[in-house]
Amino acid sequence: MIHAYTDYPLSQLHTFGMEVCADRYVEYETVGELRLLLARLKSEWADKPWFHMGGGSNLLFASSRYEGTVLHSAIKGHELVAEDEATVCLRVGAGVVWDDLVGYTVSKGWGGMENLSLIPGEVGASAVQNIGAYGVEVKDLIVAVHTLDVDSGKERVFTNEACEYAYRHSIFKTELKGRYVVTHVTYRLQKSPCFKLEYGNIRAQLELMGGEVSLESVRSAVIAIRESKLPDPKKLGNAGSFFMNPVVSRSLMEAIRLRFPDIPYYEVDADNVKIPAGWMIEQCGWKGRSLGRAAVHDKQALVLVNLGGASGADVMALSDAVRHSVKETFGVEIYPEVNVVTSK
Ligand code: EPU
Questions:
Q1: Cβ proximity of 47 and 155 under 8 Å
Q2: pLDDT digits (tens, 9 = 90+) for 171-217
Q3: DSSP string for residues in 10-76
Q4: What is the second-level CATH architecture of the domain 237-341?
């Protein structure tokens, strides 16, 4: 069924928690309904812009009114579409809540998603953003992304390769932005889990909790680490990491290391490394600081928070100030990971 509303408040539907109202908010449950809606966006609703939102966990509304149509998928459910001795393939509706899916796969004993526990958002966005945490990116699990072409309404299936995945990147964020809507995602999971415990303090957290290494215990460890560092959006509005970790040349990192011998970094390739933006922001003295009602989180400097009553413009002003400091201090540009939504 299609549910359409006018003058619809979005405050509960995005994690930054600002008061935002959309001219029109429309939710659908099937691919056929989405096709009908895409046709309406080109006819009776064509005078205003539109955008498709997921769980609202990676969004910043630039203003308090979205003058257009907001679409949201309520395509739910999952289906086992292939199985062999070692793996299963699961086709999942774009509107399924990501962490519900992780909980389900862990309960079935299928490995692959456990390090991605508690990431907010929905299945459709997982494939667009290439969500990642604790040494795993969802691109490692994706077999196919099922979409509808916005112009023709025809179905198109993208293989993993066709999605051009890279760190926090897919073709749907750049070249094909706004051209396709994800309806389902197919993931491949392992029947005999292969644990990835080397990243960050997962192993230390597991030892602290005691007991065996299992899908359940890794999921619990990741949840405990995330809860200790990342603010709960129900209490403090935020969109997770506000910035991406920049990839810089090895020579620039070496030059920075002369001044900051403890700089952390991750290998990318022979010529490039990735520097944690949170570390640079903390070195610039921003951790825990606020500008108006927006602040840099005091436990993880990569996260910007709404202290209550912040506007989208307040958060953007803080983002600009932080980016300026990082550029001045390190000569490195950092870019928001969060999608800034504007209807102008
Ligand atoms: N660091 C600091 N100060 C800070 C934050 C981090 O010095 O305030 C240092 C840490 O000590 C560590 C390094 O930076 O040496 C990396 O920190 P962390 O492991 O917390 O991860 P991150 O690079 O800051 C990324 C993801 C997170 C994900 C974690 C864990 C991005 C943009 N963010 O953060 O993803 O949970 O790794 O894998 O890649 C998200 O996307 O919303 C998100 C939370």
A1: no
A2: 999 999 999 999 999 999 999 999 999 988 899 999 999 989 999 99
A3: -GGGSTT----EEEEEEEE-SHHHHHHHHHHHHTTTTTS-EEEESSSSSEEESSSEEEEEEEEE---
A4: Alpha-Beta Complex (3.90)
Rounded to whole angstroms, the Cα distance separating 272 from 258 reads 17
Give the mean model confidence (pLDDT) for residues 61-82. 97
For ligand 1, pick from 169, 244, 302 the residue to mutate: most ligand atoms within 8 Å of CB. Answer: 302
pLDDT score, position 22:
97
Domain boundaries, the chain: 3-73, 78-205, 237-341
For residue 38, the tally of other CB atoms under 10 A from its CB is: 20
For 308-324, write each residue's pLDDT tens digit. Answer: 999 999 999 999 999 99
Mean pLDDT of the chain: 96
Task: Give the ligand 1 atom nearest the CA of 240.
Answer: 42
Domain boundaries 3-73, corresponding CATH code: 3.30.43.10
Task: Choose the residue to mutate in 138, 241, 298 for probing ligand 1, maximizing ligand atoms within 8 Å of C-beta.
Answer: 241
Q: Which protein residues are within 6 Å of ligand 1, measured from CB?
A: 133-134, 200, 230, 240-241, 244-245, 264, 276, 278-279, 282, 287, 300-302, 337
Q: How far apart are CA 287 and CA 229, in angstroms?
A: 13
Angstrom distance (rounded) from CA 307 to CA 293: 5
78-205 has CATH 3.20.20.70 classification: no
Residue 56, token pair as written in the block: 């609202």
Cα–Cα dist 242/263, whole Å: 20
